[in-house]
Protein: Beta-fructofuranosidase
Amino acid sequence: MGFGKSQLWPLPVFLMCCLILNHGVEALHKVYENLQSASAVNVKDLHRTGYHFQPLKHWINDPNGPMYFNGIYHLFYQYNPKGAVWGNIVWAHSVSKDLINWERLEPAIFPSKSFDKYGCWSGSATILPGNKPVILYSGIIDKNNTQVQNYAVPANLSDPYLQEWIKPDDNPLIVADKSVNKTAFRDPTTAWLGKDGEWRITLGSRHKDKGISLLYKSKDFINWTRVKKPLHSVDGTGNWECPDFFPVSVQGTKELDTSVIEGNIKHVMKISLDATRYDYYTLGKYNTKKDKYIPDKGMVDGWNGLRYDRGNFYASKSFFDPAKNRRILWGWANESDYVHDDVKKGWAGVQLIPRTIVLDPNGKQLLLWPVEELETLRGKKVELTNKKLEKGEQVEINGVSAAQADVEVTFSFGSLDKAEPFHSSWDRYDAQKLCSHKGSTVHGGVGPFGLITLATEKLEEFTPVFFRIFKDQDKHVVLMCSDASRSSLADKKGTYRPSFAGFVDVDLTDKKLSLRSLIDHSVVESFGANGKVCITSRVYPTLATYNNAHLYAFNNGTEAVKIESLTAWSMNKPQVMNQ
Ligand SMILES: *[C@@H]1O[C@H](CO)[C@@H](O)[C@H](O)[C@H]1NC(C)=O
Ligand SMILES: *[C@@H]1O[C@H](CO)[C@@H](O)[C@H](O)[C@H]1NC(C)=O
Ligand SMILES: *[C@@H]1O[C@H](CO)[C@@H](O)[C@H](O)[C@H]1NC(C)=O
Ligand SMILES: *[C@@H]1O[C@H](CO)[C@@H](O)[C@H](O)[C@H]1NC(C)=O
Ligand SMILES: *[C@@H]1O[C@H](CO)[C@@H](O)[C@H](O)[C@H]1NC(C)=O
Ligand SMILES: *[C@H]1O[C@@H](CO)[C@H](O)[C@@H](O)[C@@H]1NC(C)=O
Structure:
């Protein structure tokens, strides 16, 4: 699960935990006791999203227990019913028929018993044989943050919305044995069934600086025993949160239930690294005999590894959707402003647009893409084709609501000859650093070119999403950036405005690069090269808001680029009903 923010705050705070890793990275989790039950008086609309998932007010974090059951998608999420900062966490609950339009229900799980009195933290749903959903979640049992694993079941399986959940008295199901760290012991996954007929789950933990994904087994889902060796662990990565472990199909058109453990598949192991607050994954093989996950050769296992998203995206969780044979990923984007801004706004956090997960045909990474249902919100459309952009040119995309839009564009370029050299001193893993000094205003050879989102006419405020291509001996390096550094004129020193970036492992033989951006007031969620690199930025423009926001395509590279095709849509608001 994810906590609140790690920014300085002048009021006295209660320091909950502090981990210092051998890399010198430090993550401070602060709990704002004085604010966590300060109910929002006014909920500010400015910067609230139009089509992303948000409750009416207050704090949200991790998506929990997503599932499809009898024609309905369920989304639970960590929610503070009392304030706009982390605290008082319950499992809020919403249901949908299409992952886009939602109905809000009463919280499904909230502290009430000795085994979850101090908190109901993250967890997952499993549909047991006989079509019986069960939720596993982490309960906090004392003021020392001791964690246990509990289960909950629907009170009435005939209720199509499964509104009421029961936490049976034989909870907790799993307590930490002596060799396990009971305060880093949380976030159980969806269970999968082994060939021996036993269920397995994994959950996040640590031992000193080693990140661990503990493995538990059970015949009946009630009596769980720890498998001595963890499913996976990596030295020097610190605390692991919200692990996710699932198969992806190799060359398949259908994705797979979590219990598929053999066949033409690879396994994905995703970890939310508490120390850096990003979601990392590797691809590999699940050795079912040894009950061990083994990453493929060449995979980087740690904070230089592959990420679902290079920006504000954490504590994600996937589920298998049997209705459309796909795997769907939910991820949480926190705010990038200050705690006192959130208290003033009366809200904090959004769930990003659910994404499908498939294996890249190259077998080396995943491709993520917004679920097709999002397209039902597309309204007014404008198109642009065959538009050449010389160096320094930009073209405005008129006719759509630029603050609430979906844009798909394909750029092409005649030649890569002018690509700038990639210096050997640059860190191959630190795209963000490169983007921070090779931003959109720094002219290049091939690129920077891309979109300018949430912009004022004279670019006093703008969030560019763009590519830049470098030459590195016999190959090319493609940098993709989503740069928040000039996104807002709000005068705040030291505000978190990162130049999020990633390197795109893409074949450039056809001399084309595609980009899709979902723009939603304070969210810019972008997908490069069909979902090879995704970057989410949270930004707070002061002028480029509502009808004053503009959208452009631009080129600041010597090599002319062509917009092969660009389609932009104004996005409608989904229907969200309250019960
Ligand atoms: C919490 O930890 C302190 C210090 O280790 C200990 O004295 C206390 O008994 C613990 N409280 C509970 C409720 O476990
Ligand atoms: C269970 O849900 C069904 C459908 O909503 C309803 O008709 C029935 O009365 C419920 N049963 C109980 C015991 O609440
Ligand atoms: C156990 O976890 C807590 C919370 O992350 C941490 O402060 C502590 O150092 C951990 N202990 C060990 C031995 O890893
Ligand atoms: C729980 O499972 C373990 C391992 O299968 C077994 O040894 C133990 O007897 C079981 N306990 C209960 C109460 O059934
Ligand atoms: C392109 O470069 C010019 C000149 O440096 C700069 O004024 C402009 O803002 C740049 N465009 C973008 C999108 O950064
Ligand atoms: C989101 O907020 C920023 C700015 O406060 C922090 O730097 C990030 O660590 C935080 N991300 C998460 C996942 O909590």
User: Anything to note?
Assistant: The two ends are 27 Å apart (CA to CA).
